[in-house]
Design goal:
Number of strands: 20
Number of domains: 4
Oligomer: single chain
Distance between the termini: 32 Å
Strand content: 25-35%
Mean pLDDT: 81
Length: 487
């Protein structure tokens, strides 16, 4: 029993020793490596597919439908007859109108004969009054009779014009009894049957819906107000439809509309996406789930978001921020990546290499003698993103002045290189420089000699899991995401 007890104590001690050795080897920190890869930022939204142009065909007249010549999904051509309405009532009105015109023309001829007689009587009495053979009152009566006859002629002519116009309106309505397709397309809906009566007294009745061209379709997405600021015309869109779960389709943002819609206090904006449907797979009315790619960064340093959220319980446990080594700033890498995206020619690349070499020399010259004071950068000691020790909680004016000084120093350093760029390249370069200078910064704790060391990094885009970073970090560096519980 004594031997068994001794062996048990030895076993427990061995187990306890091995456990603590494993904990010691594992360390007191949970870490994740800094990786290099791609980050894609996309916005999700739902919407409905529809034809770009859908025409509703109605009837401008009332009557009974006698023929329906097309059905659902039929292809139609412009001016093709697709339905007919009974024309008999309009034909009768045309016959009646023709008779009324003939009657008005007879009245006109009678009035013209009366006018001629009155004109001759007035002329005779006008000559006799000069010889004082008739009284002036007789001349006045003859003039009045002539004017009355002229008025009757004018009235008869107006009646003819009115009857002609009315008959022409009836002829137009007779033509409208034949319903024609206004466009080339496909019949989506048919709302009438032969024998049905349509009434167009108040509203135009809907007879057909015709999609003009289903080879090109559109999606109307409802995008949340928090995401709408990131959308621009021309961005790529990928989407799926429940009807085709194994396929992914592509589209392009065509329009970001300003007409906001509020539903249950949720504000959304309509975004129109155009889709190529040349194979005819997609159908109008399908509900789609879309992703709009708003940003994509390739071959960048990235880290888990948990590392950016970590903050040690006691700052005393963290090692002091280390001095930056020459060229340790990620600004040089960011500038090189920006230049690579501009498509430089040989002369432009030579000017950039010259400017970036001067930046590296300046960093090396300033960092070596001042390593104990936190290093320096191309902007001067503590004055820029390469080795700055700033907290973004300062006043807005101070931050603005600092960024302005950084921009001025950057413009001086790369003035010769920028002068070799064309207008489009200069615009992209200026935008990227502005983005680098105004980039957000956050603390990160890099594990150095078993202890977390606080460093400031520039923070870029995030896909919700990982975030782009640049600064005094390298691929493979271990950064702290949390502390392990004491054993």
């Amino acid at each position: 029993m004594i031997v068994v007890a001794v062996l048990a104590l030895v076993g427990v001690g061995l187990w306890y020793w091995q456990k603590h050795k494993a904990v010691a080897e594992e360390g007191a920190w949970r870490t994740t490596p800094v990786e290099r890869g791609d980050i894609r930022v996309a916005i999700s939204a739902t919407g409905t597919l529809s034809a770009i142009s859908t025409v509703t065909v109605g009837s401008q007249i009332s009557g009974q439908v006698t023929d329906v010549l097309v059905d659902y999904n039929d292809k139609v051509e412009k001016d093709q007859v697709i339905a007919r309405i009974d024309p008999s009532s309009y034909e009768a009105q045309i016959t009646q109108g023709a008779a009324q015109i003939a009657n008005a023309e007879a009245s006109l001829r009678q009035a013209q004969a009366t006018l001629r007689n009155a004109e001759l009587d007035f002329q005779r009495k006008s000559e006799l009054v000069q010889q004082q053979l008739v009284a002036k009152s007789d001349v006045d009566l003859a003039r009045a009779a002539r004017d009355q006859a002229q008025a009757q002629v004018n009235a008869a002519q107006a009646t003819i014009r009115s009857q002609t116009a009315s008959t022409q309106t009836t002829r137009i309505n007779l033509e409208r009894t034949v319903i024609r397709s206004p466009v080339n397309g496909v019949v989506l809906t048919r709302s009438i049957e032969p024998g049905q009566t349509v009434a167009a007294s108040l509203n135009t009745p809907e007879l057909f819906k015709i999609a003009e061209d289903l080879s090109k379709m559109q999606i109307e997405l409802a995008v949340d107000e928090s995401d709408i600021g990131q959308l621009k015309v021309g961005q790529a869109v990928s989407f799926t439809a429940d009807a085709f779960p194994d396929r992914q389709f592509k589209g392009t943002v065509e329009q970001v509309r300003l007409s906001a819609t509020t539903t249950n206090n949720v504000v959304t904006y309509p975004v129109i996406v155009t889709v190529n449907n040349s194979d005819g797979t997609l159908l109008p009315g399908l509900t789609v789930n879309a992703e709009i790619e708003v940003s994509k960064r390739s071959n960048v340093l990235k880290v888990s978001n948990a590392a950016l959220r970590y903050k040690p319980a006691e700052d005393d446990n963290a090692a002091p921020e280390a001095p930056r080594a020459a060229g340790g700033s990620g600004m040089v890498d960011d500038l090189s990546r920006t230049a690579a995206e501009l498509g430089l020619n040989a002369q432009q690349q030579a000017e950039f290499d010259k400017a970036i070499a001067a930046v590296r020399e300046r960093i090396a010259a300033r960092t070596a003698p001042q390593a104990g004071n936190g290093g320096s950068t191309l902007f001067g000691r503590g004055g820029g993103p390469g080795g700055m020790r700033i907290t973004m909680g300062g006043s807005g004016d101070a931050q603005g002045q600092m960024r302005q000084r950084m921009a001025e120093r950057m413009n001086q350093q790369f003035a010769a290189f920028r002068a070799t760029l064309n207008a489009d390249q200069q615009k992209k370069w200026d935008a990227q420089i502005s983005a680098l200078i105004g980039a957000k910064r956050a603390p990160l704790f890099k594990l150095v000699n078993g202890k977390p060391q606080r460093i400031m990094v520039r923070v870029g885009v995030s896909d919700g899991t990982s975030t782009e970073i640049s600064g005094d970090v390298r691929q493979g560096d271990q950064v702290v995401t949390g502390e392990r519980a004491a054993q």
